[in-house]
Structures are given as C-alpha cells and as structure tokens.
Specification:
Elements (H helix, E strand, L loop, with lengths): L7 H21 L3 H5 L2 H11 L4 H10 L4 H21 L3 H18 L4 H19 L8 H5 L4
Helix pairs in contact: 1-5, 1-7, 5-6, 6-7
Pfam families: DoxX
Main location: membrane
Subcellular location: Membrane
C-alpha cells in the first residue's frame, strides 16, 4: 500500500515510534526523587485498597506492597525500556506485548477513574495494531538485523 508520502510499513513505523515517545514521556514526567522514595507506589496502594475487585487488592498486597521500592524501579524503568525499544524498533513484538500488559494493569488498577482510562485504552489499541500489523518491518533495528521476519 502506498499513500501520498509513505508506504504502509512506514506509517506503521510512525505509529510504533509515536507509541514509544508516549512511553518515554510517561517515564520522563515522573518526579523520580519522589517516585523512587515510594510516592508512586504509595498512590497506587491507596487506589488498590479501595478497589472494587478483591483480586486487585489481594494481588497488589501480594506482589507490590511487600517491595514498594523495587516495584517503583520496575515500573519506571519498564516505561523507559518500552519507549526506547519501540522508538529504535528493537525486540519490538516483545516491547509491544509488554506495553500492552502494562497498560492493561494500569487500566484494571484505575478502572473507577475513566478520565485516566483514555490514555491506557489508546496505548493498548496502538500496541495491538502495531503488533498484528508487524510495525517493525520499517525503520527498526529488528528489520536491519533480520529479527522477527
């Protein structure tokens, strides 16, 4: 498929790179000093405590609450890795699936706050389109290295 400026594979690369920039912005805008002291995880704990689904409360208590500092680093650096991986097109299918999972976790945690859901739903949709349309075919290290052909 050819459009006025770019072919289909290039437009999918634009979509993938845009999603990567979105993840990079999610990482960039965090107040790292406060985040790594537990601010972000503390905020999430308050939401999880009042969550309408018991599985979310118990899952948070089992996985995140015992290790808030580690989880703060995991979340922040996962967003950074997703952003860089998608922008560079390196291990793209893995980054897209990981991003989709992270967006779904955010979506489930914040299920009661629909103002927050627009971003997570849009990023999840872009991840699905980019994954199933194989957005790593152009402008990516994956294509240059012959990975995931």
């Amino acid at each position: 498929m050819q459009t006025m400026w770019l072919g289909g594979a290039e437009w999918l690369a634009v979509l993938r790179i845009g999603l990567g920039l979105w993840w990079l912005e999610s990482w960039r805008h965090k107040d790292k000093k406060e985040w790594f002291k537990g601010g972000g995880i503390g905020w999430a704990a308050g939401i999880a405590e009042k969550h309408r689904w018991a599985v979310v409360r118990s899952g948070f208590d089992a996985v995140v609450r015992p290790r808030p500092r580690v989880m703060a680093y995991v979340v922040a650096y996962a967003e950074l890795a997703l952003g860089l991986g998608l922008i560079l097109g390196f291990l793209t299918p893995i980054a897209l699936v990981a991003g989709l999972v992270l967006n779904l976790v955010y979506l489930v945690l914040m299920i009661h706050d629909w103002a927050e859901q627009g971003q997570n739903l849009m990023m999840a949709l872009i991840s699905l389109v980019a994954l199933f349309a194989m957005s790593w075919q152009a402008w990516s290290l994956d294509a240059a290295l012959g990975i995931f052909l």
